[in-house]
Automatic annotation (TrEMBL):
Gene3D superfamilies named among the record's database cross-references: 2,3-Dihydroxybiphenyl 1,2-Dioxygenase, domain 1
Keywords on record: Aromatic hydrocarbons catabolism, Dioxygenase, Iron, Metal-binding, Oxidoreductase
Family under the similarity heading: Belongs to the extradiol ring-cleavage dioxygenase family.
Chain spans, region Disordered: 260-299
Residue ranges of domain VOC in the record: 6-121, 138-256
InterPro entries, alphabetized: Glyas_Bleomycin-R_OHBP_Dase (IPR029068), Glyas_Fos-R_dOase_dom (IPR004360), GlyoxalaseI/FosfomycinResist (IPR050383), VOC_core (IPR037523), Xdiol_ring_cleave_dOase_1/2 (IPR000486)
Organism: Niallia oryzisoli
Listed name of the protein: VOC family protein
Coiled-coil blocks: none
UniProt keyword Oxidoreductase present: yes
Cofactors that this protein relies on: Fe(2+)
Biased composition (Basic and acidic residues): 263-272
Amino acid sequence: MIRHKKLGYVVLNVTNLDKSVDFYENIVGLEVVERKNTIAFLRCSNDHHNLILEQAAEAGLKRVAYELEKNDQFQGVFNYLTEQGLNPIESSAEETQSLNQGRTLRFKDPHMGVTYEYYVDMKQMDSPFTPKKAKITRFLHVVYETNKFDEMLDFFTNTLNFRVSDTSSDEKGAWAWLRAFPSPYHHDMAITKGSENKLNHLAYQAERVDDIGIQVNKLKNANVPILFGPGRHRPSSSVFLYFADPDGITLEYSQGMEEFPEEGAREPRELEPTPETIDEWGGTPEPGFGKYGKLISED
Ligand SMILES: CC(C)c1ccc(C(=O)O)c(O)c1O
Ligand SMILES: [Fe+2]
């Protein structure tokens, strides 16, 4: 059984590394840890990185990485994924050194082709992460749009040991919010049924609701497109705000998400597929919401 410590980081391809580093540092609120010619490492925790930005011709999501709960689980997870036919590949010592993390494996899901990583033992920074430009406190979730909704739900629950927190569906659409067991957060990933397979958004936790309000004004002053919100999501009961990064990728600030105990967690709910489930405050997303998020195949 895979036991997750947390959603650790993602790798995004960006078309203008300088611009994106500036944006993620000065607008979103992460801290730059290491900056090289075509790659930058940023953090919003004590980890060496929670976001890697790579210069590329085309923007998109390259990889999603989860930290395993314990180092000694690594070989068992590798063997399990091999038995499941997922052909995990262990990263070379040279690569893990450059990433400042311990043993690392990668595999793709058989439905959307996203590259996932399981790693252990990421370098912890000497100085604690102190939010400066925006009060963010953690990297929270990844949401995909998928035309393989049922298959992805089955894969994440039955193969990767995610647990469903809530679902909602009708003939027009479907959503599922899942946590990377035993992570307590209402969702570390979610899927929404759509015509394409792509990243819908990435979410960062804001410290207080006030910090979301402050960011509304900061984003407006910096001419950053606000794509949805502020509002309140019924599933996790969080207050949210979505906006666009320089390549149009949708980002979310989220505050107040429900947390689950490992044992005795409530059962998943099937929520009404009404607009109020998505925003109790009655807002609607802008056309740019979740629009850009190409899945980049890592070969
Ligand atoms: C609109 C999206 C899919 C959504 C819906 C609900 C929540 C939540 O309950 O926190 C989200 O985080 C979302 O991104
Ligand atoms: Fe979200």
